[in-house]
Amino acid sequence: MILIVAIALLIPSGIGYLNTRVNYDILTYLPKDIETMKGQDILLDQFGTGAFVLFVAEGMEEKDVADLKTKIEDVDHVADVIWYDSVMDLSIPMEMLPSKVYEAFNANDATMMFVVFDSGTSEDCTMDAIEQIRKIANKQCFMSGMSAIVTDTKNLAMKETPIYVGIAVLLAVIVLSLTMDSYLIPLFFLLSIGMAIVYNMGTNVFKGEISFITQSLSAVLQLGVTLDYSIFLWHSYQEELEKESDKKMAMANAITATFQSVIGSSITTIAGFVALCFMSFTLGLDLGVVMAKGVIFGVIGCVTILPSMVLIFDNLIEKTKHKPLMPEFDRIPKFVAKHYLAFFAIFLALLLPAIYGNNHTSVYYDLTQTLPKSLESVQGADKVDEKFDMNSAYMLLVDKNLDTASMNEMIKELEATDGILSVLGVDSIVGPAFPRNFIPEDLLNDLESDEWKMILLTTDYKIASDEINAQIANVDSIVKSYDPKAMVVGEAPCTKDLINITNHDFQVVNFVSIGLVFLIIAFVLKSASLPFILVAVIEFAIFVNMGLPYYTKTTIPFISSVVIGTIQLGATVDYAILMTTRFLNERNAGHDKKEATLIALSTSMKSVIVSALSFFAATFGVGLISSIDMIGSLCMLMARGAIISMFTVLLVLPAMYMIFDKLIMRTTFGMNVQEKTDHHTNGMFHRHKVA
Predict the structure, then answer these.
(1) Which one, of 612, 56, 5, lies nearest residue 376 by Cα?
(2) Phi, psi (rounded to 5 degrees) for 391
(3) 276-311 pLDDT, tens per residue?
(4) Which residues contact 300 (CB under 8 A, 6 or more apart)?
(5) Helix (H, G, I), strand (E, B), or coil: what is residue 58?
(6) Three-state SS at 488
């Protein structure tokens, strides 16, 4: 019955998935109340100007460029194409055009147009228009700008996302085949998780849209963080079968046991994702909600769909049973327990370099850096830079009623600003030698609304560089000294805001995720000291992971530094709780700290290794093959983080038990162990327990 309902639910989920829009422009996740985003709305509402791209044509005659311009203007959602024939007719002598205006559009054998759209940067119709323009233009033409980048990102993500899932599944099957005792059970694990993923992706339809990062990562992440639950259930079921001959009864007991153990670990994982929702850059909210929902679906699937599959196909699973290929770890726990001081010393020695590396890892915000060099948008940006020494363009919105003298003074100041190549607006085109009535009415309408004048600035500084951020701050102070209401808008100012906002978000998310996980550990383990110890150990693993790029001279995408900490904390705190619970149980049973550490390590080691390897398998392959660095880098960091967390929990945490045992015993509720001085009694007690 459950399996039939589960399969039937795939149909509405699939429909929901197909009707969920994917957003490929991460700048739209900036807060709506900041000046740059308000400015974007004014551009769209009053100028009909949403997105714009820079279009470079090489080695073409002027009349051919004019023909091409006409064809581009006919494309749906192209509001206007600004070229120097927009300023005046080609029949009027070129000398009449101010030289700075002419140079803004021409360089040797290349000429540049500004293609303006009446729709937003990442709207589907804008991307369709860009594809249409690419078909019209020949190989001598190049496009640069945010909309071109978004279009290429969409094409790449759509092509690669199914491959991500395929690679994750393939590597997960390999890990499960090595660690499970049946060749068929990994298939049912992945089928039940796959169904939970489809439900999760289908219910995103209620959000309206999700980001391409969420779309690309959520299936892989959900597989990585919820695979443990299936393994728990299978092991519980096998244990129950030894005590109970009725398979349905054994499964009922296994579901109860699994639900109790999984609920704690899933809450910590959800807490990590919930922390992302506290970001003011709402990409965090997008990823956080989808992933928290994914974990909930994963838990539900694990205690409903998977048991149904196991019971229905039980005979088939039994026939494919084999001896697990993973060895038993007998010697390692003894070695770790014996040399705990050495591992604690390594922890102390690595702590400061890890913190330093974590604090000094370089991140990039320029979205062209996240894409392969072969893409048209990246080549277009390079061509604009090569031909016009120009890296980007952004806009000013200034009060239309600002007097001419002030406007001219402001333009002079802007032109004198370091890195500004040209200032293009009605007032900069109109000079003493150029009558205003020569300017076509269309161009005046493009550059002026009822309230605002639009001025286009071109700059030779790269987006997201320190130079352009300083330039934008300087430009902002100049225009506001003439018009306090003036706004600086465009991709470069948005990226500057992105840098400031995500730096703040990073602190908030870290604080919230550590706070939530701290409280959960305190509640689950009923201890005042263990939250400090466990969080310190896992944060150390995160510092090592995030510090490595500094020492390997690798620059990572900005989003990695914000989300990796919370994902690694949420996904790997489970290992620590699992082992600590066992340690406390053994101490309560009367074992001394060394015996309790040894038993906790011996019994938990296999689970921790399987869990970490599953998470590694789900993310490593994606990191290896993704052409989009923002996704590839994130997955590589998560894969590496799983392995680093595994080693930290297995090697450093036992040392913490040994060193801080007295503190743990005194500060943990319900622990009333007194060390027994009588070795004979202790030995008898131990033999009784073993028996």
Answers:
(1) 56
(2) -105, -30
(3) 999 999 999 999 999 999 999 999 999 999 999 999
(4) 196
(5) strand
(6) strand
* Single-letter residue type at 353: P
pLDDT in tens, 320-358: 888 877 777 778 888 888 889 999 999 999 999 999 999
> CA-CA distance, 601 to 387, in Å (whole number)?
63
φ/ψ region of 419 (left if φ > 0, alpha if ψ in -120 to 50, else beta) reads left
What distance in Å separates the CA atoms of residue 380 and residue 586, rounded to the nearest whole number?
A: 65
Side chain identity, residue 590: G
CA 111/CA 500 separation, integer angstroms: 35
- CB atoms closer than 10 angstroms to residue 518: 17
- Strand-pair partners of 527: 668
CA 393 to CA 53: how far, in whole Å? 9
| AA identity, residue 225 | V
Phi-psi region of 389 (alpha: psi -120 to 50; beta: other; left: phi over 0): left
Rounded to 10°, the helix 247-276/305-312 angle is 150
**pTM as predicted:** 0.84
Closest CA to 128 of 110, 155, 164: 155
Residue type, 45: D
Mean pLDDT is lowest, of 73-77, 176-180, 237-241, 623-627, for 176-180
Backbone angles phi, psi at 111, to 5 degrees: -130, 150
| Tokens linked to 665 | 């015993």
Q: For the purposes of burial, counting CB atoms within 10 Å of the CB of 214, is it exposed (0-12), middle (13-18) or buried (19 or more)?
A: buried
What whole-number distance in Å separates Cα of residue 570 and Cα of residue 559? 17
Strand partners, 218: none
Give the integer Cα–Cα distance in Å for 513 and 288.
Answer: 12
Q: Which amino acid is at 155?
A: N
Biggest alpha carbon–alpha carbon distance for the chain: 109
Which helix (DSSP H) or strand (DSSP E) does residue 18 occupy?
A: helix 2-18
pLDDT in tens, 219-275: 888 988 888 889 888 888 988 988 888 999 999 999 998 887 788 778 888 988 999
Q: H or E segment at 108?
A: none
Residue type, 381: A
Strands ordered across the beta sheet of 392-399:
420-424, 452-459, 392-399, 487-489
Can you tell me the distance from the alpha carbon of 341 to that of 336, in angstroms, rounded to the nearest whole number? 9
Nearest CA to 569 out of 607, 534, 600, 599 is that of 534
R_g over Cα of the chain:
31
The backbone torsions φ and ψ at residue 245, rounded to the nearest 5 degrees and listed phi first, read -80, -30
pLDDT at 681 (0 to 100): 39
